[in-house]
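Bug #77: duplicate submission created two jobs. Keeping one. Sequence:
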Amino acid sequence: MDDFYKKILDNNKEWVEKALEKDPNYFADLAKGQTPPLLWIGCSDSRVPANEIIGAKPGEVFVHRNIANMVVHSDMNMLSVLDYAVNVLKVKHVIVCGHYGCGGIKAAMGNQSIGIIDNWIRHIKDVYRLHSVYLDSIFNETDRFNTFVEINVKEQVFDLAKTSIVQNAWKKEQDLTLHGWVYGLNSGFVTDLDVNMSSNQELDEVYQLSF
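Kept job's structure:
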């Protein structure tokens, strides 16, 4: 057993002990069920932990993560998580959170083949194609990279709003608001991209004004 693997097992024991010192019923209460108010759709990047970024406790955030925080309408994993979050857990907020320095976004800006992930990157490339005139007009590569990260988050929020799951929730006047954030790896702060919407009317208005 290598040192890292042993260390994480030891860390688990230490975490349990500290949690029980603060609250002897901590895990017993968690086991009773979950009622998180938030679904987080984020990137798989190990540097972007949903709970820690927003100071949330276990049980407060339902999480789905994939490369570059994509909302792909044929992704049954994402759709299953979304359906459960909206229709069973009745979350009130869904946050799509991207991050500056995202490797998936960077890969989509180039033409190098990486492997099987190329098939996933294709979805991100489609977003670039939609905004290529604007993005290509940004000559500074870092600025273009950061702008693409932001645009991709906005497009994923729009795609999220168009899913039948969200559409049906809004038709039933369910309390559900979508948000788009970007997390700064070098600062720790999140930026709200102001694509908050809770109805089809807001979807139409925001889409017209965003780009």
